[in-house]
Write a structure and sequence with these properties.
By secondary structure, this protein is mostly helical. The chain has a domain of 143 residues: Tetracycline Repressor, domain 2 (Orthogonal Bundle).
């Protein structure tokens, strides 16, 4: 039997390719919602697949493993959250320290909207890191460093405009910000209200040398 070569069609990519891409993106979004609420170690893929309507046997058509899936979800969350940080920290309509406050106010609204069931995916995974695949540790550390750099840049700008003392250690303050912030987010989930978030930013800003 002779097989005839099919000449590639120009224009739009095949429909199947588009469907595969869309399904993969839907699985990542569903995974993001699920893992943000329940974590990675205790989560199976069944609820994620069910929400998207994908048979369990088809999962490995889109991802090499659960670990590969987790890495893609984490990367997607970082892209989303880094964009949110840039939206606030690069907004020159407000002073640098006001931008930090606005970021917190936005987070309060988001956690309230989801009834404090969802927190920070990266922070949540950091708390269960010993039970995670080894590759996750380096990925999470790199992400935190990227977020920390954004806060540090904002604080350096606060020094430039006179909001912050010139001798302030912006690198150390930025690291402290994320250590404290992740703790505040976890506490807010526990008590199911925003007070830990508001308390954290109040004392963080007060502690900065002016």
């Amino acid at each position: 039997m002779t097989t005839l070569a099919t000449k590639p069609r120009r224009g739009r990519p095949p429909k199947v390719a588009r469907e595969n891409h869309d399904t993969r993106a839907e699985l990542i979004r569903s995974g993001l919602e699920h893992l943000t609420e329940f974590g990675f170690s205790s989560s199976g893929i069944d609820p994620i697949l069910k929400k998207v309507g994908v048979p369990k046997g088809s999962f490995y058509h889109y991802f090499a493993s659960k670990e590969d899936f987790g890495e893609k979800v984490i990367a997607h969350y970082d892209e989303y959250f880094s964009g949110k940080l840039d939206l606030h920290f690069l907004n020159t309509d407000y002073s640098p320290l006001q931008r930090l406050q606005h970021f917190v106010d936005d987070a309060v609204q988001g956690m309230t909207r989801h009834n404090f069931k969802r927190g920070c995916l990266v922070g949540n995974l950091g708390q269960e890191v010993d039970a995670l695949p080894l590759g996750f540790r380096a990925q999470l550390t790199t992400i935190f460093m990227g977020w920390q750099q954004r806060v540090e840049t904002c604080l350096i700008e606060a020094q430039t405009c006179g909001e912050l003392d010139q001798n302030a250690d912006c690198t150390q303050a930025a690291e402290f910000f994320w250590i404290g912030w992740e703790g505040a987010v976890s506490r807010a989930k526990l008590v199911q209200h925003a007070e830990p978030l508001l308390l954290f930013i109040q004392y963080f800003l007060q502690a900065l040398p002016k």
